[in-house]
Every structure is written in structure tokens, then in C-alpha cells.
């Protein structure tokens, strides 16, 4: 149990762009906030937040904050319960320490395994990246009548990138191109996302789209399958939902194409598609053991479902704290803000659990 190494890794991650020197982002953040405030005033709005929310469902920053704060209190209460469960387990193991931010995920996984008899390494054996990609293609065919044909003669920016032509299954008509940049490498940003290299339009003449999905999986040895976690599999389907949004675009004006929709709608197609991962049709066909080829057992699927809301306190507080800090930053107008100080004071005022950050 390399707790000191966990702490070192956590501190390095949490302090990215916040270490002073030429790569420190604090001054840039201040400048961005001031420029956004200036633009909002020029457009006749009180703050950047008021401008951005005018066409959203919330309409006003006050309504958005009201919703977030209503969720915040029960989420923090759930974090306290999660921490208590982890501390109990740590004490039982003889660990002479209290739970800190760098301990959270480590002990959460132990609690998950103890409570739900669910080991993520066991689940991974049924989640092969290539098979899941085939599963996504199958879903796209069933829902959108798309077929995917691999191409080898398309220029790519890295040898890891693969390209497929997307066609209408019935007519064979060209729909677009789908790029898949699956693996981590030096210089590539972290996380998973969808890009549109070219958007669909009919402004002057018909133009088809070129979209990509990008991930950061660790490439396996030659001939070995890449096994991923359930969370990463959900993210894979989620981001593919964005790609399908782009591929399904059928508009005249490029400014309205693909994912160029209002901000509080853009996640709907992707969140909808991620639910297809857990359907029996997908699991029985594509979630197969990397050695035996047998589909994932229903008993394991049941355990995954029972554990699906596990650690939701942490997940909710993590994203909600960022959203609240962001909202309050953009409500501050054209003040010259010290981002570090503002974040610390805002999180303290919110009652941010010390075990998270």
C-alpha cells in the first residue's frame, strides 16, 4: 500500500497549471474572466453568466445556483457516509491514518469489492475494446441504420488512428467518416472526447461530416486485447453518442450542424446512448471473456447494476463543486480575481469535504 506514492500522484495531478513559473495558468484565468465580463457588458448583460444562461433552460444564474445548492447538501451528506465506510475498513486493516483525498478512490474500491463482491478487474475480462467498438457499430446500425467500413487509405495524424467510412445501410449512401484515436501517447490531452473535423452542411453544396472519438487507453502488447473498466466502457459509448449526433446531422447551415446545439441539450444524445451498453442485446453479443469467448454472466451484470450508484456522493460533489465555483467566478464581473484564493474561499464557504480536496 504505497500511500506516499498515492499522495504524490494526487498532488501532482491536482496542481497542474498551478505551480508558478511559465506554465502557471492563474494569470490567464484572470484575463479570461475579465475579457468575458467585458464582452457580456458590451452585449448588454450584467455578467458572463447572465449572458450564457439566457437561452438555457435555467434562464438565470440564480435559478441554476438554486438547483445546484439543492443537490449539494444531500451529496455532501452522502460523502460523509462514504468516508465513514472507508474509515471503518481502513481501521479494520490497521491503517493508522484518516481518509485523505489521495485515499478516497483507493478505499472506495475496497469498499465496493467488500459490499458488492464486485472487482473491477473481474469485470474488465469481459470488456475488450475492439469488441465494444463492434458493439457500438451494431447499436448505430440498429438505431440509425448506419454501417461502418474500415478504410486504410485515409491520411491520419498518428499511426494509432483508425478510420471508418459511415454509410446508410439501406442505400449505401456515404454519410461521413469516423476516426478513432484510442490510445494514450505523449503530448495527447487526457480524458475522452469527440471532435468534428468537418461539419455537415448544404450551404453551397452538400458537405458530409468527419467526426472523431478520442480516448486514452493504454495500448496492449501485440496480439493482446485491450481490457477496459465498466466506467470507461460507459464513457466510450457516451462519446460515441456525440459522434452519432454529428453523423446524423441533416441541416443547411454549418452553424447549426451536429453538436452545435444549445449547451443544455448537447449531452442528451450521448447520455442516451451510454445506456445501450448495459442492454442484454449488447452484453450477450459483445461483452465476452477475452480468453473463453463466453458472454458476461448475468450474476456479474446484476452485481454491476447493484453497485451502479456506489460512490455517487464523491462523483456528485466533485462535479458540482466545480460547477458552483465556475458559476461564482463568472458572477464576479470584471473584478481582478486571484483564482487560487477565490477557489479556496468559495469551497470553504460551500463546506467542501476535506476528504475530496
Structure overview:
The chain has 357 residues and is an alpha+beta fold. The chain has two domains: 29-118 and 309-350, no CATH class; 129-296, Neurolysin, domain 3, CATH 1.10.1370.40. The protein has helices at residues 3-14, 26-42, 48-53, 61-92, 104-116, 120-124, 129-144, 230-247, 268-274, 280-286, 298-306, 312-330, 339-350; strands spanning 146-151, 162-168, 174-183, 193-198, 209-217. The chain has a five-stranded mixed sheet with strand order 1-2-3-5-4. A hairpin with a 5-residue loop joins strand 2 and strand 3 (174-183). Helix 4 packs antiparallel against helix 12 (312-330) and helix 12 crosses helix 13. It is globular, with a radius of gyration of 23 Å. 25% of the residues are buried. The model has no long low-confidence stretch (mean pLDDT 95).
Q: What's the topology here?
A:
Blueprint: H1 3-14, H2 26-42, H3 48-53, H4 61-92, H5 104-116, H6 120-124, H7 129-144, E1 146-151, E2 162-168, E3 174-183, E4 193-198, E5 209-217, H8 230-247, H9 268-274, H10 280-286, H11 298-306, H12 312-330, H13 339-350
Parallel strand pairs: 3-5
Antiparallel strand pairs: 1-2, 2-3, 4-5
List keywords for this structure.
2 domains, single chain, 5 strands, 11% strand, Neurolysin, domain 3, 357 residues, 5-stranded mixed sheet
Amino acid at each position: 500500500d504505497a500511500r506516499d506514492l498515492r499522495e504524490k500522484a494526487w498532488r501532482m495531478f491536482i496542481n497542474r497549471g498551478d505551480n508558478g513559473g511559465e506554465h502557471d495558468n492563474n494569470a490567464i484565468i484572470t484575463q479570461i474572466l475579465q475579457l468575458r465580463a467585458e464582452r457580456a457588458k458590451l452585449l448588454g448583460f450584467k455578467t458572463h453568466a447572465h449572458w450564457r444562461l439566457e437561452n438555457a433552460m435555467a434562464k438565470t444564474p440564480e435559478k441554476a445556483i438554486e438547483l445546484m445548492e439543492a443537490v449539494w447538501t444531500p451529496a455532501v451528506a452522502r460523502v460523509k457516509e462514504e468516508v465513514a465506510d472507508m474509515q471503518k475498513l481502513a481501521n479494520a486493516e490497521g491503517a493508522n491514518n484518516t481518509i485523505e483525498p489521495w485515499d478516497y478512490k483507493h478505499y472506495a474500491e475496497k469498499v465496493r469489492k467488500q459490499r458488492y463482491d464486485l472487482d473491477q478487474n473481474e469485470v474488465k475480462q469481459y470488456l475488450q475494446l475492439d469488441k465494444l467498438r463492434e458493439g457500438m457499430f451494431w447499436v448505430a446500425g440498429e438505431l440509425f441504420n448506419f454501417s461502418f467500413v474500415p478504410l486504410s487509405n485515409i491520411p491520419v495524424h498518428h499511426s494509432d488512428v483508425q478510420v471508418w467510412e459511415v454509410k446508410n445501410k439501406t442505400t449505401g449512401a456515404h454519410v461521413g467518416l469516423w476516426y478513432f484515436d484510442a490510445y494514450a501517447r505523449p503530448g495527447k490531452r487526457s480524458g475522452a472526447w469527440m471532435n468534428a473535423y468537418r461539419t455537415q452542411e448544404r450551404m453551397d453544396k452538400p458537405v458530409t461530416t468527419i467526426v472523431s472519438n478520442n480516448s486514452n487507453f493504454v495500448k496492449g502488447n501485440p496480439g493482446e486485447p485491450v481490457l477496459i473498466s465498466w466506467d470507461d466502457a460507459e464513457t466510450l459509448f457516451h462519446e460515441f453518442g456525440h459522434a452519432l449526433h454529428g453523423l446524423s446531422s441533416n441541416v443547411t447551415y454549418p452553424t447549426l450542424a451536429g453538436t452545435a446545439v444549445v449547451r443544455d441539450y448537447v449531452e442528451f444524445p450521448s447520455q442516451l446512448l451510454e445506456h445501450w451498453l448495459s442492454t442484454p442485446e449488447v452484453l450477450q453479443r459483445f461483452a465476452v471473456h477475452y480468453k473463453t469467448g463466453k458472454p458476461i454472466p448475468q450474476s456479474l451484470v446484476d452485481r454491476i447494476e447493484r453497485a451502479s450508484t456506489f460512490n455517487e456522493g464523491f462523483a456528485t460533489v466533485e462535479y458540482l463543486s466545480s460547477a458552483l465555483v465556475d458559476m461564482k467566478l463568472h458572477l464576479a464581473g470584471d473584478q481582478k480575481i486571484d483564482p487560487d484564493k477565490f477557489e479556496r474561499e468559495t469551497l470553504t464557504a460551500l463546506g467542501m469535504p476535506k476528504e475530496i480536496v
